[in-house]
């Protein structure tokens, strides 16, 4: 599944166009490597996403083409949430 679609379906980011913009700006990493919107996401991957002054790290648990709002949080496990300090 494409990264931008996963971010939207899992509701980590509300809209796919915003997810595409965020990943193309270099604010998303998969397993420690920069990721673009078209990068393939697999179960077990660790995603790090920078939201302003916050960096969230999650592990992909499931992939689905669509999901209900109540079930979206089951697609990932929150590993870490920390204040982001630019390098």
UniProtKB/TrEMBL annotation:
<dbReference type="Pfam" id="PF01479">
    <property type="entry name" value="S4"/>
</dbReference>
<dbReference type="InterPro" id="IPR002942">
    <property type="entry name" value="S4_RNA-bd"/>
</dbReference>
<comment type="similarity">
    <text>Belongs to the RqcP family.</text>
</comment>
<keyword id="KW-0648">Protein biosynthesis</keyword>
<keyword id="KW-0820">tRNA-binding</keyword>
<keyword id="KW-0699">rRNA-binding</keyword>
<dbReference type="InterPro" id="IPR036986">
    <property type="entry name" value="S4_RNA-bd_sf"/>
</dbReference>
<comment type="function">
    <text>Key component of the ribosome quality control system (RQC), a ribosome-associated complex that mediates the extraction of incompletely synthesized nascent chains from stalled ribosomes and their subsequent degradation. RqcH recruits Ala-charged tRNA, and with RqcP directs the elongation of stalled nascent chains on 50S ribosomal subunits, leading to non-templated C-terminal alanine extensions (Ala tail). The Ala tail promotes nascent chain degradation. RqcP is associated with the translocation-like movement of the peptidyl-tRNA from the A-site into the P-site.</text>
</comment>
<keyword id="KW-0694">RNA-binding</keyword>
<protein>
    <recommendedName>
        <fullName>RQC P-site tRNA stabilizing factor</fullName>
    </recommendedName>
</protein>
<comment type="subunit">
    <text>Associates with stalled 50S ribosomal subunits. Binds to RqcH, 23S rRNA and the P-site tRNA. Does not require RqcH for association with 50S subunits.</text>
</comment>
<dbReference type="InterPro" id="IPR025490">
    <property type="entry name" value="RqcP"/>
</dbReference>
<feature type="domain" description="RNA-binding S4">
    <location>
        <begin position="1"/>
        <end position="62"/>
    </location>
</feature>
